[in-house]
Amino acid sequence: MGELIRIEPELLKLGYQIIAVSADSPEFLQQSREKHHPNYLLLSDSSMQGAMALGIAWRLDEKMYHKYKGFGIDLEKASGKKHHLLPVPTVYIIDTDGVIKFAYTNPDHRIRINPEVLLAVAKAESENK
Asked: pLDDT tens, 6-52?
């Protein structure tokens, strides 16, 4: 959600609701909410069933898992699970009927959507309502 926070006020003005889904456990997310006070709804998918259903889950191999731990990221502690799964960063624009109007997923989890691109798509979609 990092850079997307910048465009959050404009998305809200356009009538969008922002919902983030995390691999972190509800308890871990509560700590994050208390620390960062996000303005968006933050949900837990610590079992990764939602991400698997959407086809956006990826498994860290042991080498990558230990590399993350070396960076201070303890996936087992954060999720409360031992599956070593993370979601590929994905953004959807979904209309009020539940129809996906736009989807962005990049298999390279280090590449996120450009916020300006997302804002342009959101504006175009809001004009097509």
From this structure: 899 999 999 999 999 999 999 999 988 888 777 888 899 999 999 99
- Looking at domain 2-124, does it have CATH number 3.40.30.10? yes
CA dihedral of residues 6, 9, 11, 13 (deg, nearest 10): -160
Listed in order, strand segments (DSSP E) in the chain are: 19-22, 41-44, 57-59, 85-87, 90-94, 100-105
Number of Cβ within a 10 Å radius of residue 69:
13
Q: Is the pTM of this model over 0.90?
A: no
Torsion of CA 43, 66, 83, 48, to 10 degrees: 30
